[in-house]
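Please annotate this fold before class:
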Amino acid sequence: MILARLNSLFRRSAERADLPCVPPGERYYVVGDIHGRMDLFDALIEAIEEDIAASPEVESHVVLLGDLIDRGPDSAGVIKSARKWRKRRTVRILAGNHEEMFLESFQDAEVLRHFLKHGGRETILSYGLPRKEYRKLTLDELFERLPQLVPQKDRDFVSGFENMIVAGDYVFVHAGIDPNVPLDQQRRSDLLWIRERFLRHKGPLPKVVVHGHTIFDEVEAAQHRIGIDTGAFPHRRADCTRT
């Protein structure tokens, strides 16, 4: 089961009062970067719903850490599925750097050029543009077509993604935090893009940071952070923490 890899980690946390915890009576399922892999997303939804059904007395929340889109073959499907899931479950979604590039591509053709090189091509193709037709379009032509290809409801949905979520002793973000800045003063650019300044930090952090963005071979549970991007696109796996 997808959740099993991390259940033991959080079971140990629950057994010691001095270890981080979420508010009493609550449970959080935190999902790493999906990157257009509808097959993995479907499997995670099924596993999470089964786990929630086994403990109906617990107030369950789902957090998606961003980068739902790009690289994989069905970003449009992932967005549609996330919207449907949120109608029947408490699902909060964080913005990732790929969502930022996606939205800015409608405003700036140069951002679109960058977006296409980093998995955006697959996102656009997932909205029904034939590959042969895509290859014939210039950048400017694609920029003009983009608002007709991607429904406004999808753009509005993605633009509503959050930057940070705090739950008890945990903070959920896409990329990480600036270790030298209080949580309430974090810059959006760091929350979506930071890497080495955060990953190399050895000292304490204000809360345990659960993040995606940087791919690890296995879930990386360090003292003050937990990285759960295990490479949905290149490694064909996605992980979820349960706190």
Remarks:
- The first strand starts at residue 26 and ends at 31.
